[in-house]
Amino acid sequence: MNARPDYDHLYEIAESQAGYFSTSQARQAGFSWERLSNSVKSGKFLRIARGVYRLTHFPGSPYEDLFTAWLMTGAKSTVSHESALAVYELSDILPGEVHLIVPPTASRRHKGIHLHTNQLSPDETTTRAGLPITTVARTIADVANHGMAKEQVLQAIQEALRRGLVSQEELSIHAKRRGGRARQIIREIILGEVAQ
Question: Which domain holds residue 48?
Fold first, then answer.
């Protein structure tokens, strides 16, 4: 650990995360628990939740709950399912809990967070609003397989296609990859769209 805290390094970390950072990321920048606590007391940092902070000169994000969940579960987690759909503004449904895809070794003790241990390939993730998130095609396939009502999946697909967030080809590829209900629903919806 550094002898002195490196504010510039911490800023670089937090800047790409809408101003949010975790205790472990602060430690990487040389902040001891005492220094971190003093920075909160002096008003440089805001404590958002246990182990999650925000630099005070960054405004709060409308996705603060997602940043909190993501930083609490570790940097290898990814916002997914209904939570990702909400970030893309492809659903009217507000998820009752945060959905994240995490490595199989991640801790399972997080209240209000639904953890999924599905595998993600690099082409299935992106960044949006500073959050690591599943792509639109992967998100739609995940919510279809996870049991979202067919009408809601249809709404998400139509809106994503209308806004150019995804192509029919990308949806077909992910539907085939994910299989099951996703394959059935997406294929049916796409074929219906093509037939119209």
Answer: 7-55
